[in-house]
Amino acid sequence: MTDMSVEKPGASVSRATRESKIALPILIVLVVFLAAAPWWAGRADMRLMVEIFYYLVLAQMWNLLAGYAGLVSIGQQAYVGIGGYMLFIGTVFLGVHPLAAVIVAGVAAAILALPSGALLFRLRGPYFAIGAWVLAETFRLIFAQVSALGGGSGMSLPTDIVRSIADGRSAREAVVYWTALGLAVGSVVAVYYLLRSRFGLALTAIRDNEEASGSLGVNAWMTKFSIYIIAAFVTGMTGALIFLQKLRISPDAAFSVNDWTAFVIFMVVIGGIGTIEGPIIGVIVFFVLREFAADWGSWYLILLGTVAIVVMLKAPKGVWGYVAERWGLSILPVARRLDLNSVLDPSRKSRH
Amino acid sequence: MSQPILEMRRVSKSFGALKVADGIDLSVNPGQSLGVIGPNGAGKSTMFNLVAGVLPPDEGHVFFDGADVTGKNMAQRCRDGIGRSYQIPHPFEGMSVFENLLVGARFGGAMPDDEAYAVSMKILTETELLPKANALAGTLSLLERKRLELARALATQPRLLLLDEIAGGLTEAECQSLIATIKGIRDTGVSIIWIEHVTHALLAVVDSLMVLNFGMKIAEGEPREVMESREVREIYMGLDADA
Known about the structure:
The complex is a heterodimer. In chain A, the strands form 2 sheets. A two-stranded antiparallel ribbon of chain A has the order 1-4. In chain A, strands 2-3 form a two-stranded antiparallel ribbon. Helices cover 72% and strands 2% of the residues of chain A. By secondary structure, chain A is mostly helical. By secondary structure, chain B is of the alpha/beta class. Chain B is 37% helix and 25% strand. Chain B has 9 helices and 10 strands. Chain B is globular and about 50 Å long. In chain B, 49% of the residues are buried. The chains are: A mainly alpha, B alpha/beta. Chains A and B meet through helix 9, helix 10 and strand 4 of A and helix 2, helix 3, helix 4 and helix 5 of B.
């Protein structure tokens, strides 16, 4: 935003913050650095980073649902599972290339989300949450019945399909890594632009007060339903990616409420629900804790639970919510600031 | 005679055995400002919910600008031109005051970004909220929250504005400045229906008055005449209506 005259009739609105202008080049350098990981990171590190990336996507999507649209779902594992199975169906039975199958998996998840969402949207609050879980369990039981997919014990991705991803193990792992990084960066960028758009304005209003949003002309039902479908699409792609890395799928692994929803809820709540930065912080906190307590056995879950309780009591808005409020920071700003200096008093230069 | 901006025809609504709206007939002309009074539980806010589309009526029809809007939800009616403020302020607490208005302008008013920015800024000036434009709505005082309710409803560019007890809980000085703001809105030609217990504020603005009791319209007409009517004296027996 450059200087403007007081007489200018239009309102001058800025979106960027000082810290976001500093953070942007750092984030770009970080992404380039991460993209070069196949040349500097070890195999185990890369596997861990893929895991971090797909959890970042899941956390962003769950945050969109729960943090913005007010749709607290315990059933997003449905779309991880459907996406995972669509990878196997697409590659083994339909002859689709594995990377193309990732997109097919997203589309399939979004299509299945249409009737599922229409059904679940008849439920509210806790009923919606539990209903979503029941639906995910139903999908698990259905996939466990299909003997072509290995029934309850699942199946592995055939060797020729694994080879078709790329030649050689390290090339294949690099492809999976880049896909995961692309999905993670893509989801953050997409959520960022989504929230800055007119749609995001509606979504933020719904987050704060759904009834008032309706009285100001926002079609809350359609906005929330669209978010549900978008989240299913991205979560479905992520599911396919997860099992592209694992190379083996079973109904219990694909539709795990612990792995694909409970941990994700932990990340979003710890990091800061209803912000873009929160889920990113939450994913980092989760993995730091997990690596730190790797040898503790099941004590590790007790550690997670304790951290969750302490954060919820001491900083209910999560780590990022606390930091943002305390220091007024916004790294990925979606708000619109009206330039008051030019309107109220052109001689005053102080920040509000 | 021009066509009424709002018409309610035999509108009824019950919650179980309790009849909260009982065959209400109402007609509001463009530019008219109507005050609504009645005891607590008389069905005043229910009437707003029926007009704004929060509640569907059990019987009867609501017409806005000649068109039957009974089947429309509140978002559609807002886009048609019905704006409302809530008795208990419903701000978007995590958004700035300016962004609160933008929601109304972009959706209810269906404006493009630039126009929404300009309109919101103009309304912020008129409602004396401009210095608070970038403050989070959750940090506002009661008067500012009441002003935000009003400003946000105005941002939708309503032709009919529903004000629900907007003067309640304010000091006398705050109330006077709010009255001045509402008079300004009235004078731009917006039709107003105003529910209010603070009768002197109401009488300073409205050109007609209606009385609700037990979901029924029991009086309507020139404000002073209605205030002095036997029905009103009976309802408010022992109360000084001008207090």
